[in-house]
């Protein structure tokens, strides 16, 4: 189990862009289960959309990337590195993520080019136990 303070010791993200609240399970470099509470107080909901607020898809992708960041940067060889987004593929949005939802983000290592410090992780987001989004994120650790 990992809280926000411990997470900030691994990844460089800070509010308002830190989108992981806790880590429930972690096998460094293999798999992660993380959580994020989507507070209705977030500024983004004032404009997306005022009459029917929904978490923007780019935030979902960022949640997947941050879970992958923790998964990778918790490995000794990547500790202290800065994770850079190289690409996203196969992203699908399956259901809305609403204010006050607590989502679970699952990610696992799909492939890695160790000599270039590049890795791709497959990630899925669940809301209320249902698949809300999924995709593959490719990161470079620099």
Provide a brief overview of the structure:
Helices cover 15% and strands 41% of the residues. By secondary structure, the chain is of the alpha+beta class.
Inertia-based shape:
globular
**How are helices and strands ordered from N to C?**
HEEHEEEE
DSSP strand count = 6
Radius of gyration computed on alpha carbons: 14 Å
Q: Give the proportion of residues in helices.
A: 10-25%
Q: Which residue ranges are poorly predicted, with pLDDT under 50 across at least 5 consecutive positions?
A: none
**What fraction of the residues are assigned to beta strands by DSSP?**
35-45%
Summarize the main sheet. Answer: 6 strands, antiparallel
Distance between the termini: 26 Å
Number of helices: 2
Assembly category: single chain
Query: On the 0-100 scale, what is the average pLDDT?
Result: 97
Strand order of the largest sheet: 1-2-4-5-6-3
Instruction: Classify the secondary structure makeup into a structural class.
Output: alpha+beta
List the helices and strands and how they pair.
Layout (H helix, E strand, L loop, with lengths): L3 H5 L13 E6 L3 E7 L19 H17 L9 E11 L8 E12 L4 E10 L2 E12 L1
Antiparallel strand pairs: 1-2, 2-4, 3-6, 4-5, 5-6
Write structural notes for this entry.
The protein has 142 residues and is an alpha+beta fold. Helices cover 15% and strands 41% of the residues. It has 2 helices and 6 strands, in the order αββαββββ. Strands 1-2-4-5-6-3 form a 6-stranded antiparallel sheet, covered by helices on one side. A hairpin with a 2-residue loop joins strand 5 and strand 6. The longest helix has 17 residues. 28% of the residues are buried. The model has no long low-confidence stretch (mean pLDDT 97).
């Amino acid at each position: 189990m990992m809280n926000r303070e411990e997470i900030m010791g691994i990844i460089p993200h800070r509010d308002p862009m830190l989108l992981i609240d806790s880590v429930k399970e972690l096998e460094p470099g293999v798999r992660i289960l993380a959580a994020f509470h989507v507070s209705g107080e977030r500024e983004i909901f004032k404009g997306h959309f005022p009459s029917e607020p929904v978490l923007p898809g780019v935030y979902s992708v960022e949640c997947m990337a941050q879970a992958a960041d923790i998964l990778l940067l918790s490995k000794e060889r990547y500790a202290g590195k800065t994770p850079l987004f190289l690409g996203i593929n196969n992203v699908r949005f399956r259901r809305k993520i609403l204010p006050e939802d607590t989502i679970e983000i699952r990610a696992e290592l799909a492939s890695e080019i160790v000599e270039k410090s590049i890795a791709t992780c497959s990630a899925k987001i669940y809301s209320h136990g249902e698949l809300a989004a999924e995709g593959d994120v490719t990161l470079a650790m620099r």
